Inverse folding.
C-alpha cells in the first residue's frame, strides 16, 4: 500500500535533548513537508522540500532541522534550541506538477512531549 | 502575511441537517483550495479540493468557491454523528509549487 509512515507515534524528550522524527513515503512524491499542530490551532509549516538535497524554512523553523538525502525520506530533528517542542507533528507529501489540485497527503503524526 | 480564516466553532447541528463551514483567505492570487477533516488525535484527511468558481459536489459534500469575495465553503448534507470532527480549510498560494496555508479549523458536532 502506498502511503506516508511517521515514527514513532509517541515520543518523549528530556530537557536539552535532541530528538529525530522519521517520515518515509512510497508515493513517489517530490515534495515533502513538516507541520506542527498545537491544541486548538491550525497547522504551521516548519520546513519543506520540493526536491532531493534541497529544503526551505517554513514559518516556524527555529529550533528545528531537516535533511532530504533521499526522495522517500524527510526526517525532522527537534533540537534543544526549540523551547516549547510539545506538540503534534505531521509530515505530508505532494506531487509537484502543473496541476493546481496537488493536495497533500499526511502521515499518522508523532506526538512529542517534553518530560 | 497570507492568512486563512475560519470560525473555530464549535458548530453544532442536529443529525440529518446541513452543516455549513466557511473559510476566507487573504491572497487574491490563490489558485487551489482544499478541505480536510481531522478527527481528534488523528491526522488530517482530504475531503475535497476546488479550484474553479462555483460548486463542486461529491456525495454528501459540496465545496463552493467565490474568488471575487475570497471565500470557500463546505456544505455537508444529511449530517451524521460520524461527521463530528474538525474541518481544516487549506489554500495553496504561489501556484502549483506553492505551499499550503491552513486555517485553524472549525469543530463540528453533529448531535443524534
Amino acid at each position: 500500500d502506498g502511503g506516508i509512515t511517521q515514527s514513532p507515534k509517541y515520543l518523549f524528550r528530556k530537557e536539552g535533548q535532541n530528538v529525530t522524527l522519521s517520515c518515509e513515503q512510497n508515493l513517489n512524491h517530490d515534495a515533502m513537508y513538516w507541520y506542527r499542530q498545537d491544541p486548538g490551532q491550525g497547522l504551521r509549516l516548519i520546513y519543506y522540500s520540493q526536491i532531493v538535497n534541497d529544503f526551505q524554512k517554513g514559518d516556524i523553523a527555529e529550533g528545528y532541522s531537516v535533511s532530504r538525502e533521499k526522495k522517500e525520506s524527510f526526517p525532522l530533528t527537534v533540537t534543544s534550541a526549540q523551547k516549547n517542542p510539545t506538540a503534534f507533528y505531521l509530515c505530508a507529501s505532494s506531487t509537484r506538477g502543473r496541476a493546481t489540485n496537488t493536495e497533500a497527503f499526511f502521515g499518522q503524526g508523532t506526538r512529542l512531549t517534553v518530560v | 502575511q497570507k492568512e486563512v480564516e475560519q470560525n473555530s466553532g464549535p458548530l453544532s447541528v442536529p443529525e440529518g441537517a446541513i452543516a455549513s463551514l466557511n473559510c476566507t483567505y487573504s491572497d487574491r492570487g490563490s489558485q487551489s483550495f482544499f478541505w480536510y477533516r481531522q478527527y481528534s488525535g488523528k491526522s488530517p484527511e482530504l475531503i475535497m479540493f476546488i479550484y474553479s468558481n462555483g460548486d463542486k459536489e461529491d456525495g454528501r459534500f459540496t465545496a463552493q468557491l467565490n474568488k471575487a469575495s475570497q471565500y470557500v465553503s463546505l456544505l455537508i448534507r444529511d449530517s451524521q454523528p460520524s461527521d463530528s470532527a474538525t474541518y481544516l480549510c487549506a489554500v495553496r498560494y504561489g501556484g502549483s509549487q506553492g505551499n499550503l496555508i491552513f486555517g485553524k479549523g472549525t469543530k463540528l458536532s453533529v448531535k443524534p
Summary: Chain B touches chain A at residues 4, 8, 31-32, 34, 42-46, 49, 51, 88, 90, 92, 95-97, 99-105 (CB under 8 Å). DSSP finds no helices and eleven strands in chain B. The first strand of chain B starts at residue 4 and ends at 6. The CA atoms of residues 89 and 104 of chain B lie 8 Å apart.
